[in-house]
Write a structure and sequence with these properties.
There is one protein chain. By secondary structure, the chain is mostly helical. It has two domains: 222 residues, Hypothetical protein af1432; 58 residues, no CATH class. It contains 17 helices and no strands. Helix 7 packs across helix 8. The longest helix has 24 residues.
């Protein structure tokens, strides 16, 4: 028996009856030899970590565009924090931690430069719309590894696709990531907003603090505990109605005070302008695309190809391309 088979048998013995076992995966789109050491979900996690799209997350905005401080979150640190929260819940419920981690690490791979500002613009200017969760799946299935894709398992792709939106993931592990994403961004965005002087802890709704806690770590811990306590029956990942209402209220507070119209968003209109102009200009002049993108225009079409290119940009690369195209160079 090789090590992978040993781990698969170990999963069957120690994980919950509700867990997704790697040996029961629905598989990959392209058949391939299995690893002698790692389970299929462990391989997926590793493929995501080694991908170029994952490395680019370190230069993509989470909430604050071009912050001066070194301690504000980026899309990469957000991803790692989502993974940590999700793994804690999965382990406590004896669900498949490897599958949970792979979904968490891959859930934002298709995110645009400048966070949701970039996503919003691309959804407006592209004729078939744009959603970062769908682009994340396209990234792992098609764009990575010189357009060979990462060939991930069905369960990981399903979790990535449905980490947001109206359809719930098919696995409990995917549902965990959906909750972990919200827990992470609400509480860590609060911490960043306090650091930036936009809000203070005392500004937070008192009823939420009474239920959830009076610090980011306290709120995260209490919410994780509540989810674990309410999800042990295997019928779905959920929190109590009291905690759900408090978290929804806290999220609304952040939209009212930070996400929309605050000083943290003062540069957002400039970022939106850059993304819009880059997309529209390159759509009219696709000959300016890099050679590897030009090669797929006939197959994918100009608009799809330009969308993939712009969506994959980091913040600083988008700024550099905008300057290169629209700002006169000195001579």
């Amino acid at each position: 028996m090789n090590l992978r088979e040993y781990q698969e048998n170990l999963e069957e013995r120690i994980l919950s009856e509700f867990a997704t076992l790697s040996k029961n995966s629905r598989g990959r789109k392209r058949e391939e030899n299995r690893c002698d050491i790692r389970t299929d979900f462990q391989r997926d996690r590793d493929r995501i970590i080694y991908s170029k799209a994952f490395r680019r997350l370190k230069h993509k905005t989470q909430v604050f565009i071009s912050p001066e401080g070194d301690h504000y979150r980026t899309r990469l640190t957000h991803t790692l924090e989502v993974s940590q929260i999700a793994r804690t819940i999965a382990r406590s419920l004896r669900l498949n931690e490897d599958l949970t981690e792979a979904i968490a690490l891959g859930h934002d791979l298709g995110h645009t430069p400048f966070g949701h500002a970039g996503e919003r613009v691309l959804n407006e200017v592209c004729s078939f719309g744009f959603r970062h969760n769908e682009q994340s799946v396209r990234t792992v299935e098609i764009l990575e590894k010189d357009r060979k894709g990462l060939n991930l398992t069905w369960e990981v792709c399903d979790g990535i696709l449905h980490h947001t939106g109206d359809i719930m993931p098919s696995t409990l592990e995917g549902q965990i990531v959906r909750f972990a994403d919200k827990i992470a961004y609400i509480n860590h965005d609060i911490e960043d907003a306090i650091r930036a002087g936009i809000i203070s802890e005392s500004d937070l709704p008192e009823d939420c603090c009474e239920i959830l806690g009076r610090s980011p770590s306290a709120r995260i811990n209490s919410t994780i505990t509540n989810i674990i306590e309410n999800s042990m029956d295997g019928k779905g990942i959920r929190m109590s109605s009291e905690f759900q209402k408090a978290n929804n209220r806290l999220r609304s507070f952040m939209f009212e005070n930070v996400y929309i119209g605050s000083v943290a968003k003062k540069e957002e209109s400039k970022a939106e302008l850059m993304v819009r102009q880059l997309f529209l200009y390159l759509k009219e002049k696709p000959e300016l695309l890099p050679a590897d993108y030009q090669r797929v225009i006939e197959k994918d079409g100009v608009e799809r190809t330009v969308l993939d290119y712009v969506a994959g940009m980091t913040d600083r690369y988008a700024v550099r391309k905008f300057q290169e195209i629209f700002v006169p160079a000195s001579w």
